[in-house]
From TrEMBL:
Organism: Tieghemostelium lacteum (Slime mold)
InterPro entries hit by this protein: TFIIF_beta, TFIIF_beta_HTH, TFIIF_beta_N, TFIIF_interaction, WH-like_DNA-bd_sf, WH_DNA-bd_sf
Superkingdom of origin organism: Eukaryota
Entry GO terms, CC: transcription factor TFIIF complex
Gene3D superfamilies xref list: Winged helix-like DNA-binding domain superfamily/Winged helix DNA-binding domain (1.10.10.10)
GO biological process: transcription initiation at RNA polymerase II promoter
One of the Pfam families matching this protein, by short name: TFIIF_beta
Major subcellular location class: nucleus
Record's protein name: TFIIF subunit
SUPFAM superfamilies (UniProt xref): Rap30/74 interaction domains (SSF50916), Winged helix' DNA-binding domain (SSF46785)
Keyword Endoplasmic reticulum part of the UniProt annotation: no
Limits of the TFIIF beta subunit HTH domain: 167-229
């Protein structure tokens, strides 16, 4: 690092708000989009009904909706700080993350059902793009090339397909799983990968949260949705 760069990092940090305790909340995209339309108006209210019974009500919507906040503390040995920077480049410490929160909708609400329908329609609408290539040149294949009988052609093809899978957000994948389990009670992992078109390792993480894996009985190695996610 050169001396000019070092000099640019030297300066004071405003710590007036260093003791502030802040909540870090994971917010669904559709709610973020709604809040952007609110401008400087109130976006919602937090209702603490005792203990971990915490809810968020959203302002500016036609139908009253409450979101449950599930909280988890930040480990003391892994503190998270919040900093801000103004247009002049001055830094300020705005506080500490005291709690991490996830918002959870009521899966039996009309709002949630309408959201699932919109997402399902979006997922099933595939678009293709035709791109014109300019200045293309022919490619010649050496006629002496031979395909070895020992080459694992099928496994290469499967890997290539898996690599092309685009990760969707966790909320989107959960919606796809809920729609699938409305049709059947049990699915094996391979079928769920085909339904969601998600990488197997990523899908397993979400299944661990939303589904139970039967380890014995007639439905051994089959997944079923957890009761709290049942519609």
């Amino acid at each position: 690092m050169n001396e000019d760069r070092n000099d640019s990092l030297v300066g004071e940090i405003n710590t007036d708000n260093a003791e502030n305790q802040v909540w870090l909340v994971k917010v669904p995209k559709f709610l973020v989009d709604h809040w952007k339309t609110r401008g400087t108006n109130e976006v919602g209210k937090i209702h603490i009904k005792g203990g971990n019974n915490i809810f968020l009500s959203v302002s500016g919507v036609d139908i009253y909706e409450e979101f449950q906040l599930t909280t988890s503390p930040i480990p003391e040995n892994q503190p998270i700080k919040i900093f801000s920077q103004d247009k002049d480049g001055a830094l300020a410490l705005e506080g500490n993350i005291g709690l991490k929160c996830d918002l959870r909708m009521n899966i039996n609400s009309a709002t949630y059902r309408n959201l699932c329908k919109k997402r399902t329609t979006l997922y099933n609408t595939r678009t293709s793009v035709i791109k014109k290539l300019d200045d293309t040149k022919p490619i010649y294949v050496n006629s002496k090339f031979k395909l070895s009988a020992k080459m694992p052609v099928s496994s290469v093809a499967v890997k290539s397909t898996a690599d092309k899978m685009e990760r969707k957000s966790e909320d989107e994948v959960i919606d796809m799983l809920l729609n699938a389990f409305e049709e059947n009670k049990y699915y094996d992992l391979k079928t769920l990968v085909q339904i969601t078109e998600q990488p197997m390792s990523y899908l397993k993480q979400i299944l661990l949260k939303t589904c139970d894996l039967n380890r014995s009985g007639p439905n051994k190695n089959m997944y079923q949705i957890k009761p709290e996610y049942t519609r």
